[in-house]
Amino acid sequence: MRIILLGAPGAGKGTVAKLLTEFDGSVQISTGDILRSAVKEGTPLGKKAKEFMDRGDLVPDSLIMDIMEARLQEPDCRTGFILDGFPRTIPQAEALKSLLAKLSIQLDFVANLDVPRDVILDRLTTRRTCCNPACQAIYNVKSNPPKEDGTCTLCDHKVIQRDDETEEAINNRLETYNAKTAPLIGFYEKEGMLKNFLSLSSKDTVEEIKKALKG
Ligand code: ADP
Ligand code: ZN
Predict the structure, then answer these.
(1) Residue 118: which CATH number?
(2) Model confidence over 130-144: pLDDT tens digits?
């Protein structure tokens, strides 16, 4: 499959993307994960991106497009890909359109995960993430807690709250989403690419996306 997942922070793009990779071997491409591991490794990209990310601001479009132009040409993308967290702005969507045309890649569709705002807020403040870059399992202190000693059930690393999951950074991320990313819904609607999924359960959404791919 070749799809884009759109949705506010906390809409469940990461969880849905991971489940979809198990379906047909398509790779999940999360710009957030790529940036977080660059920050952790202290690469030049990570150094540039860190201050934007910690505030909950977007990283400049030019940096993101450099990452994605290279990433989409790696051999594992030939089977298919699920874009999670990219594009995030109209300029990124325009640049992606030209890039895909250049690479002769056709998308199946853009899946917009529609989740009520109160559900989003609750999820973001209770979310915890495994600190192991190779794992990054997502937990929820209420509905899906880590082990009692605060470690990951999959890899035993510590489960932590991300720097951008403080209340201030969360509010900023939601404002940034409304101002910069929500306009992509209209953009892809005009392109005839948009499919909406009312998304309360990630598992149900995955099933609906699979159905839409077959149909
Ligand atoms: P979220 O849970 O907010 O969707 P992500 O893991 O997708 O988080 O991204 C974390 C941070 O990485 C964002 O707040 C932003 O600073 C940066 N980032 C990720 N993807 C992009 C992108 N496509 N364009 C600009 N910044 C991005
Ligand atoms: Zn883990």
Answers:
(1) 3.40.50.300
(2) 999 899 899 999 989
Residue nearest to ligand 1 atom 14, measured at CA: 56
Q: Is the pTM of this model over 0.85?
A: yes
Q: Is residue 42 one of the residues assigned to a domain?
A: no
Residue 138 CA, ligand 2 centroid: distance in Å = 8
The Cα–Cα gap between 136 and 154 comes to 10
The reply to whether ligand 1 has any atom less than 6 angstroms from the CB of 4 is no
- The DSSP letter of residue 115 is -
Closest CA to 198 of 88, 112, 82: 112
> What's the CA-to-centroid distance between 82 and ligand 1, angstroms?
15
Query: Residue 75, preceding bond cis, omega within 30 degrees?
Result: no
Number of domains comprising the chain:
1
